[in-house]
Specification:
heterodimer; A: 609 residues; alpha+beta; six-stranded mixed beta sheet; 13 helices; 25% helix; disordered C terminus; B: 378 residues; alpha/beta; pyruvate-formate lyase- activating enzyme; 2 domains; nine-stranded mixed beta sheet; three-stranded antiparallel beta sheet
Chain lengths: 609, 378
């Protein structure tokens, strides 16, 4: 392409993403846009096409970002090139969202016509504003009986400051208002502004590991032009690669001779490790590099840690390979080898949040077919010793002796909960229970309140979100950010099975709730661990002191007393199944412990589970 | 090698019990005549293909064999007599449903040569009988036994069940008392196991089945053994008790890991080291016998390793266990060598007893048999 053609083409490009709260209809709208721009034939059209992975489909959350190039013939008779960039919709993935937004000039902000603005929507709006995006508010689901588009428009104006008249009314589900949205994209989203002839600056907003092609890097070209055969450099890591293939997704991969300013597409360059393609990093030319990387890159730090152990110790190497492969696809996943007395060899892994942790765990089990023991998640504690040393502890069992500890600090977050008036009491009660410090309460309108608390991260990562949802009948929305460390009266609680301390079950708790937690945990373990051939005492202790106890009774009867006639193979199958079932349990000391038991230390109190 | 045992399956019932997952069909409108003809054909073909010089035990089970009319049942029994070379001191059992065997039927069975009856009592509690879907009364049991005795049956077994929904210990003790009052020669007592495709399974899934706890079930098993022992019914297998000399030859065939013929829909056989399963559904069974002569849906040649495993997990069900000598004769190996990593930990845990001539379950092991058997799968 000639340089002037690139400039001309640039003017017709519109890059945008869709930001929305979970369930407000993002994926459905993406589907409609793909339909309207005929990116897919009817036959190819699958519901919620952008949510590619099974797991995502099941959970209804987008985990991996996607970018699609679409052709749109606008009312002005011109053909425009749209790049629709999908964003993940969970608080664990804020940084990914911010990077995919940085790849855009505009954003469609979807607001549910019945539910209005949610805390998370707001968080994403701020991210979009941070990236200087043109925001087009879309009031979705206007055909619901409970829709109040006028009220929500007012809310958009009051809360976000976007004029009411800018709002597009739509129902993605029923295809209402889709043209209006596409026209608004053409009119309002500015075309990209970079210089196609400048040194290459492309931002990585995602990457994906393909076993045949290596890493597929999703990039947005901000400045310059890139072609196959050129050498590129990753500015954060300094690694260099030769570009093999470039293209865009339509949404099928479509190979191109070059990617230039405004393009959003993929690059394949024999990259073997996703760690070399960090989200937010700048790709530049190795021969003619830019001096300044694009702003906004940061290395993500995991906030939640847990131990992952294979149930079958023979799977250790497979687990390592699984983590290596997942890491190729997920630069925010961290892991290092660790050993547990109870569980043997495994890995301590760091995640962005609890959801991220669950997803990784499920993927290892499903995609790699490894049965896992997951220990209860922990945050990073800062332990100040009497001799002045400071330790960072991400595994409760590593906590030093109480006598050596001067004090312990734990990470706190500022949690913002947006909730209808009626639930203020319930939310405050929950926050207090989770050791929160009240900061502020603000009315957004006569009915909606934002409550701000500072809460220990450890309390958030456990079951805060679920409890919040259930106590507010799903009306509350929630966002949090890390604010730093504060001193807390924390102690390590150990769990003993059959008088043997099980390191993988140790947990750090607040001194005031230790007794209650200990009781809840031993009861839960009693429930989860099947009867053994002998009686098993379950105890919770702090230091040498036992604070709670329960007993798993000895197995009394397990014998097939049934007449199967001559069907011996059935008897055999039954015994084989029993044997197989035990393989899925972990033999800890002399006790067979099922996987779920290792998460039981999350049991908060009786009646709450 | 001679195959000395025959099992014949009658897959018809007048009512379907809530716990039963055997191959059975509601008897109404079934092609009984044709089925019996094809069973006979299967017998003829089987004995031709796998000749045997003598048969020492025959077991006609179901389903409900006595749901057949006297004429039909007699036709089946005659066929058996015709095709299998029955030795003089044979054992021939027919399963009998209380109330569905009248004098005529019993008389005919006796004439045909049946010499053992297994009566499906399950419980003497009227309420529980209803719960498990059986339509007989406790009185039917004593009447049937009386009729049987009058017809000269001197070897009668009762089938009992425990661990039934809502069953209390008192109810079970009562059932045991009444059982012992019957002065019979043999008792089989099975604990309820909920199997898929049963009424109970459906109820359980809906949370509508209240089963006794593991502890209560264990206590019941304990009481069962204690009470029957008192009545001189010696335990000779996990679920079986008999007066001396009345141990079931047929069931011992299975536990001794010996071969047996299996005739009829859904039957299993073990002949010359091959285990076979017959088609269960009637149309399939009948069509296969008609066109191919044999109704096999599955054939598996048991490997040497599997044979040894089965020798153990079947053999250990017997109170006498597995003798070193038998094992040596059958497999040419020492039992202690073959399972040298398996037996010692189990004896240490007190689950197995090694008395130097045989391996058997301890008292504790009887309650936890599956924990032991599982270990013998190598």
């Amino acid at each position: 392409m000639k340089p002037e053609d690139r400039i001309k083409r640039r003017e017709k490009i519109r890059n945008f993403s869709i930001i929305a709260h979970i369930d407000h209809g993002k994926s459905t709208l993406a589907d409609r846009i793909l339909e309207k721009t005929s990116a897919l034939t009817q036959r190819e059209m699958k519901d919620q096409i952008l949510d590619a992975m099974d797991l995502e489909r099941e959970r209804g959350i987008t985990i991996k970002l996607n970018a699609v190039q679409l052709k749109y013939k606008a009312e002005d008779g011109e053909e425009y090139i749209f790049h629709l960039i999908d964003t993940p919709g969970h608080v664990d993935f804020t940084y990914e969202v911010s990077r995919s937004l940085a790849a855009c000039e505009g954003a469609l902000l979807i607001v549910d016509a019945a539910q209005g603005i949610e805390a998370q929507t707001l968080a994403n709006v701020y991210l979009a504003l941070d990236n200087d995006l043109e925001i087009i508010p879309v009031i979705n689901k206007i055909d619901l009986p409970s829709a109040e588009p006028e009220r929500v428009k007012q809310e958009v104006e009051d809360v976000i400051g976007l004029p009411q008249e800018d709002c597009v009314l739509a129902s993605a589900k029923n295809g209402i208002g889709i043209e209006g949205i596409l026209e608004a994209v053409v009119d309002k989203v500015p075309p990209p502004s970079g210089d196609p002839s400048a040194p290459l600056k492309a931002m990585i907003f995602d990457s994906l590991y393909d076993p045949y092609r290596g890493v597929i890097v999703y990039i947005r070209i901000v400045e310059g032009t890139v072609k196959p055969g050129e050498k590129v450099r990753m500015m954060a890591t300094g690694k260099e690669f030769e570009v093999q293939e470039l293209g865009v997704f339509t949404p099928k991969p479509d190979i191109r001779e070059e990617l230039t300013v405004g393009d959003v597409g993929f690059m394949i360059a024999s990259i073997k490790n996703v760690g070399d393609t960090r989200v937010g990093d700048t790709v530049t030319s190795a021969k003619n590099p830019t001096t300044e990387p694009l702003p906004g890159y940061r290395k993500l730090n995991p906030m939640v840690f847990c131990g992952l152990y294979p149930v079958d110790t023979n799977d250790y190497n497979d687990l390592r390979e699984a983590l290596e492969k997942l890491e190729l696809n997920d630069a925010s996943l961290q892991y290092e080898a660790e050993t547990s007395q109870a569980l043997g060899f495994g890995f301590r892994c760091g995640f962005l949040g609890l959801l991220h942790m669950e997803i990784i765990q499920e993927r290892i089990e499903r995609e790699f077919n490894i049965d896992l023991i997951t220990t209860a998640p922990s945050v990073i504690y800062s332990v100040h010793l009497t001799d002045g040393d400071i330790l960072t502890i991400d595994n409760p069992s590593k906590m030093p002796d109480q006598q050596k500890i001067e004090h312990v600090e734990e990470p706190y977050v500022k949690a913002q909960v947006m909730v209808p008036n009626d639930f203020v009491g319930a939310v405050m009660e929950l926050c207090q229970k989770k050791r929160g410090d009240y900061i502020d309460m603000q009315y957004m309108d006569e009915n909606r309140v934002t409550i701000t608390y500072e809460i220990p991260l450890s309390e958030i990562v456990f079951d805060f979100f679920d409890t919040l949802k259930s106590t507010t009948k799903g009306y509350a929305s929630f966002d949090y950010e890390l604010i730093g460390y504060k001193e807390s009266r924390l102690v390590k609680m150990d769990i003993l099975l059959n008088a043997e301390q099980i390191d993988a079950l140790s947990v750090i708790v607040h001194r005031d709730s230790a007794f209650q937690r200990g009781k809840a945990i031993v009861e839960k373990l009693k429930e989860l661990i099947p009867r053994q051939q002998f009686e098993v005492p379950v105890q919770a202790s702090i230091g040498q002191k036992i604070i709670a106890r329960s007993t798993i009774k000895a197995m009394r009867k397990n014998v097939l007393a049934k007449c199967y006639g001559g069907d011996i193979s059935r008897k055999r199958k039954l015994l084989e199944k029993q044997k197989e079932g035990k393989k899925r349990m972990k033999s800890v000391g002399s006790v067979e412990v099922p996987q779920e038991a290792f998460m039981s230390v999350l049991s908060m109190d009786e009646g709450n589970n | 090698m001679n195959t000395r045992a025959v099992y014949i399956h009658v897959p018809f019932c007048e009512q379907i019990c809530h716990y039963c997952d055997f191959n059975k069909f509601y008897i109404k409108n079934q092609p009984i005549e044709e089925y019996l003809d094809l069973c006979e054909k299967e017998m003829a073909n089987t004995i031709e293909r796998f000749p045997t010089s003598e048969v020492t035990s025959i077991y006609v089970g179901g389903g409900t064999p006595t749901s057949l009319s006297t004429e039909h049942l007699s036709k089946l029994l005659r066929a058996i007599r015709t095709h299998f070379p029955i030795r003089d001191d044979y054992e021939w059992t027919v399963e009998v449903n209380p109330g569905s065997a009248d004098n005529k039927k019993l008389e005919m069975m006796k004439e045909m040569g049946v010499n053992r009856l297994s009566i499906g009592v399950q419980t003497f509690d009227q309420e529980l009988l209803k719960t498990i879907g059986r339509d007989h009364n406790p009185e039917d049991v004593s009447n049937t036994i009386k009729l049987a005795r009058n017809n000269g049956f001197s070897n009668i077994s009762l089938d009992l069940m425990f661990g039934l929904p809502n069953q209390t210990m008192d109810q079970f003790r009562e059932t045991l008392e009444r059982t012992m009052d019957m002065q019979i020669e043999h008792v089989s007592a099975y604990s309820l196991k909920i199997e898929a495709k049963t009424v109970f399974y459906q109820l359980m899934k809906k949370g509508k089945l209240s089963l006794p706890s593991e502890d209560l079930e264990a206590d019941m098993y304990h009481v069962l053994r204690e009470q029957l022992e008192k009545a001189n019914l010696q335990q000779y297998e996990i679920s079986n008790f008999a007066k001396r000399g009345f141990e079931s030859k047929h069931n011992l065939t299975y536990w001794n890991n010996e071969s047996y013929f299996g005739i009829g829909a859904g039957s299993h056989s073990y002949i010359n080291g091959v285990r076979r399963a017959n088609y269960g559904p009637l149309p399939k069974y009948m069509k296969a016998v008609q066109s191919l002569g044999f109704p096999y849906i599955e054939e598996h040649e048991v490997t040497f390793k599997e044979k040894m495993e089965e020798e153990m997990f079947m053999g250990l069900r017997k109170i006498s266990g597995v003798s070193f000598k038998t094992f040596r004769e059958k497999y040419g190996m020492e039992i202690e060598d073959t399972f040298k990593n398996i037996i010692p930990p189990l004896t240490e845990k007190g689950l197995l007893i090694n008395d130097g001539t045989s391996i058997r379950l301890s008292n504790k092991g009887l309650f936890l048999g599956n924990e032991v058997f599982e270990k013998f799968l190598m």
